[in-house]
């Protein structure tokens, strides 16, 4: 992906400086021609002049005048004239944007400006209200789709698809639940030049929210690209490096841990909460997220949320933290607690994230506490905060509002990788610093007789992390594997050809499968099966089935 200074070309105040560099002075407004066929010919002449202009300023001027002049013929009662005008308007708007985006700028805001000496009103139409700071603009076609293995979801129509990227807001609690990379959204641009308007209008609008644009008695469906915006934002992210480093005692991923909204919060759309796996990051969900945004039905019913968390802590500790991230997000977006979005959360987890999704979908009862301790918590001596924290870690119910879960390549019965040489090596280097572990260590030392003998030394020394709690013989893990959700749940697993017993290379097939699943799909793939077309298609099928069942 190109750098922001060369490939992610943006509009802004530098636009005016670029266009003022030449002495050629255009008229204050595009000419108004009464006859639409004459006006269409005038627009064609301007397009020819733009294509042959010798400098950027003149070229930008001609493209702008062309797009503005072609607007009125789009309302022609003659279908051939209207269609030709719309095609020409698109061509000229794209030419304008290609020209002015060659130089970077500090940002772009709605409001009046001047392009090639012509007064223009910039209109952010139905664009996210999270854009409180100047935005960068890029042509969607210029953003590579490598992140999605080249799969780009586009809709042909009127206007030029764009991406918008701006620093995240800082004026409301919800802002902390937007990605640190910023706010990035899809958009489409076109020029309007209505009769009697004081100046042409450059519209930058949300094509999904708007659907179409009306010119006279005609309506034109808007072009859209629902893929480029995320690829644009992801190109600025350091998450790929931070995921692994967060497993190996790095703190940066921990500082940004939380639940992040990838689109504007909608109180009526159900969240699909995606939880990555061990040493991974939310970019793992690029293909699945892209597929949901590219599906008109699913994007109208679901909103995509990505979980970020440091994966080095014990499984039950991570479950406790993820619950806290969910709570914090709901407090920010729905402090009253009455939005419809709360009812119908879908969890999608890969690997360790799938185990955590299951633990967020079950009632623990006393099973986990009894696997670790010989006495009820009421018999324990210790600091009140330590006791409360231990109680919350080992005792929990299904997270409120979760109604479906999808587990992908998840080691519900542990993984032999955690038992072998690689597991021992990982256990020696994976970070163990966690306040929850410190609390457990203090309680285990003060109440040694109440801790199960085979766990006593581990708890007293705090020798716990995500790897140790995935060992197949780990008592608490074994107790947890028997906890099955009371909601519909689904399994997607990988199985490499020629392996006996079947495995995806890290998780045995037997460990990934659960009894009672509403559906099970085994794909001939490795542990990164979430990237396979079959797995993505299966998640979409499950979501569509969920929508159909809710109607």
UniProtKB/TrEMBL annotation:
SUPFAM superfamilies: alpha/beta-Hydrolases. The keyword Signal applies. Keywords: Hydrolase, Signal. One of its GO terms (molecular function) is hydrolase activity. It holds the Pfam family Abhydrolase_6. Residues 272-538 form the AB hydrolase-1 domain. It comes from the Bacteria. Coiled coil: none annotated. Residues 1-25 form the signal peptide. This is Alpha/beta hydrolase. It comes from Tahibacter soli.
